[in-house]
Amino acid sequence: MAIPGSAMARAILRLAGDAPRAFAWLDGGAQGRSFFGLEADREIEVDSLAALAAIEALWRAEPGYVWIGWISYDLGVDALLERPARAGSLPGLCFRRFRAAIEIEGERVVWHGEAAARGRLAAALAAAHAASTREAQAEPCVWPFGHVSAAMSVETYTAAVAWVLEKIAAGETYQVNLSQRLSARWLAEPCGAAALARAAADAYSIVRASTPASMGALLAAERAWILSNSPETLIDVRFGGGADGGDLARTWPIKGTRPRARGAAADAAAGAALLASVKDRAEHLMIVDLLRNDLGALAIPGSVSAPRTPTLVSLPTVHHLVSEVRCTLRPGWRLESLWRAIFPGGSITGAPKRRTVELIEAVEGRTRGIYCGAIVALEPGGLRASIPIRTAMVDRGGLTLDCGGGVVADSDPEEERLETLAKARAFDRGPDGRVRAG
User: Fold this and answer.
1) Is 171 left (phi over 0), alpha (psi -120 to 50) or beta?
2) Are residues 225 and 316 in the same domain?
3) CATH number of the domain residue 403 falls in
4) Per-residue pLDDT tens for 147-194?
5) Would 332 be classed as within a structural domain?
6) Range of 330's domain?
7) Last residue of a domain, one of 197, 229, 261
8) Is residue 380 part of a domain?
9) pTM exceeding the 0.85 threshold for the entire prediction
10) Cβ contacts of 277-284, under 8 Å, gap ≥ 24
11) What is the enclosing helix (H) or strand (E) of 292?
12) pLDDT number for residue 20
């Protein structure tokens, strides 16, 4: 059965209910590129970036396979600070190679991997498509979580911003991406792995339907699921796409945010105010310059470029400032070197990066895990990685997520706090699945 690309999402979500441990969907939405794999034949789980060398060797030796995985923010920080990796609730690095995977872009579906495995994946998707079609008129998905609430009190968050502002005034940093943790409890706790998988898939289905994201993901982890509603690309590499046939690397940093406003006139005014904001433009430029420097470590000299002014991108809940930074990579670049140059992403740390991650660790007092790390696909034409912001972990305890924003010298603590709450809105819904009023 040939499944239209537009119907593939329903079939994929239907398969999640079977709770396969290796389920991995990088979801580019209706306009972007997506990858889905179900049957992994290799899995590498370690707490070291050095494992990227072995993964790269396997990927380049057999480029017809797709690898999907993640790298935690904390593993990147430990590597940057040259210290032993800390253990987290998830492995710091997890990559799985899929015997068969599909790539979806609009109505175009491309198959990767072994012929026999492709047949099994096609059969599973066909059965799921038929089941999802039969169930299309059934009861809609119900949002399974209660109200999302912040772990920090207003006073604690305000004190954290004040501490960061002191460090900025002292000249230790120019910008700090300060985040806070939020959580929501189950309305009815799922019983068993299959019920957890079904609830996670239902929740992701609701999120992607009303607040679609270009770098979304639904991934199975150990006794948990990762639900990512991220709009941000950490890095995209296209083999042969650069100058003189070199490999093209691009990143799209997001820095500068306004909540969407009710009413067309008020919303247009909010977007225009963001574009005109001297504070937000300066904050954005600071991170663009940081990423130009990061990419420059592996770029052909003179090939790094970025626009003079950012673009306004309007998402369902917020407006953002976004720029494209690009370069042609030097011949012989390696995956581990690329990661050590760009990771963690500058837009979710601040500048200068090394000192700023130390300050983030001190003020937040916790590990970030998958939040602000990377969700990665290694595929035949190159690689793509998101920065998992707007990303929740779902387990037997409920839903947890972190949201942050860049604190600079003229930041207002209350405005910064409200910005983090605006970014969490995609996961704060009523039982009907609608985003709660802001």
Assistant:
1) left
2) no
3) 3.60.120.10
4) 999 999 999 999 999 999 999 999 999 999 999 999 999 999 888 888
5) yes
6) 149-182+238-369+396-427
7) 229
8) no
9) yes
10) 279/408, 279/410, 279/411, 280/255, 280/256, 280/321, 281/256, 281/309, 281/310, 281/321, 282/408, 283/175, 283/255, 283/256, 283/406, 283/408, 284/253, 284/255, 284/256, 284/310, 284/321, 284/323
11) helix 278-296
12) 66
pLDDT at 124: 93
Residue 360, pLDDT > 80, answer yes
pLDDT tens-digit series, residues 15-64: 987 756 789 999 998 778 999 998 999 999 999 999 999 999 999 999 99
Residue type at position 243: A
Contact of 31 with 313, CB cutoff 8 Å: no
Q: Is the same domain home to 203 and 63? A: yes
CB neighbourhood size of 164 (10 A): 28
Check whether residue 356 and residue 316 sit in a common domain. yes
- Strand-pairing partners, residue 113, are 100
Whole-angstrom Cα distance, residue 310 to residue 288?
10
Sign of CA dihedral 381, 324, 68, 247: positive
The active-site residue, picked from 255, 379, 416, 423, is 255
Q: Are residues 256 and 120 in the same domain?
A: no
Do 75 and 96 lie in one domain? The reply is: yes
255 belongs to the catalytic site:
yes
Q: Is 416 found in the same domain as 335?
A: yes
Q: Quick check: is 388 in a domain? A: no
Q: How far is CA 14 from CA 112, 135, 241, in A?
A: 21, 10, 36
Give the number of domains in the chain.
Answer: 2
Tokens (6 digits) for 38: 């179900």
Phi, psi of 169, rounded to the nearest 5 degrees: -65, -30
| Dihedral sign from CA coordinates of 383, 361, 317, 407 | negative
Q: What is the pLDDT of residues 186-198, one digit of tens each?
A: 999 888 888 999 9
Q: Is residue 337 part of a domain?
A: yes
Query: Which residue, 149, 89, 70, is CA-closest to 399?
Result: 149
Same domain, 256 and 283: yes
Query: What digits encode the pLDDT tens for the residues 405-434?
Result: 999 999 999 999 999 998 998 999 988 788
**Domain termination site, one of 165, 199, 229:** 229
Of these residues, 232, 364, 379, 419, which one is catalytic?
232
**Residue 312 shares a structural domain with residue 205:** no
Report which of 236, 284, 246 is spatially closest to residue 386, judged by C-alpha positions. 236
Active site residue 232: yes
